[in-house]
Specification:
The protein is an alpha/beta fold and about 230 residues long. It is built from ten helices and seven strands. The radius of gyration is 20 Å and the shape is globular.
């Protein structure tokens, strides 16, 4: 089956742009892999990345993944953390009555259903007689922002850099308040059997930390160095 037909079968909208393949490949490579040297690109088979992006085999997950007991039962995590994800109580910018989880008792807080924030709040409520009404986001990537904007919930948990991105893109403004609630280490996730890939990724992260590349990328894209604990 041709690539175009395979993508359509997956329910994707496909449009053919003649003689533009090289342009888009170079653009993708510049955007996502400009920090890699030629030897590093060769070692990780950079020329095959576009194919793997549309295949059914996933070797590694990179999505701000923190460890928890349930995930560790099913997946393999690498040993070397590459980022920290400090979560703060986050509210609409015009609210001044909420500064901590204590202020949210009797109020609604929205988080992702499978997130570490959800796990943390579940434990918090067990210790505090379920005083926070936890709502789970589900209607698209912007559901938490939409519910905050409309007043259906009072707060969420978010990182400063994600709120900076949101505030730059949307008219609705938010702010983080108080101290860090959770400061999770961020890892990659692998198939349980893929110890070799996990080890190679750990070595690559150590190298990127040592030569300062990881710090530069964090500062460039996230505004600060989140490769170290805040």
């Amino acid at each position: 089956m041709k690539m175009k037909d395979a993508l359509k079968k997956k329910g994707m909208f496909v449009k053919k742009l003649s003689n533009q393949g090289e342009f888009f490949r170079k653009r993708w490579e510049h955007k996502f892999a400009s920090a890699l040297s030629a030897s590093q690109k060769k070692k990780i088979y950079m020329d095959q990345f576009l194919w793997h992006a549309f295949s059914n085999k996933i070797d590694m997950i990179a999505h701000n993944m923190a460890q928890n007991a349930e995930r560790k039962k099913k997946f393999l995590f690498n040993d070397e953390t590459y980022n920290y994800s400090p979560l703060y109580v986050t509210v609409p910018k015009n609210r001044n009555d909420i500064h901590s989880l204590k202020d949210l008792e009797g109020k609604k807080m929205i988080v992702g259903a499978t997130s570490n924030a959800a796990v943390y709040l579940d434990k918090y409520n067990q210790k505090h007689s379920n005083k926070i009404d936890v709502v789970y986001a589900g209607q698209g990537a912007d559901d938490a922002t939409t519910q905050l904007k409309t007043g259906r919930v009072d707060a969420t948990l978010a990182t400063p850099f994600s709120i900076d991105f949101s505030n730059q893109a949307l008219k609705f403004q938010q702010k983080t308040v108080g101290d860090i609630v959770i400061n999770s280490k961020v890892y990659f996730m692998f198939n349980k059997k893929d110890e070799k890939l996990k080890s190679e990724v750990d070595q690559a992260i150590k190298k990127l930390k040592k030569d300062g590349t990881l710090k530069k990328l964090s500062t460039k894209w996230l505004g600060e160095d989140y490769t170290v604990q805040n």
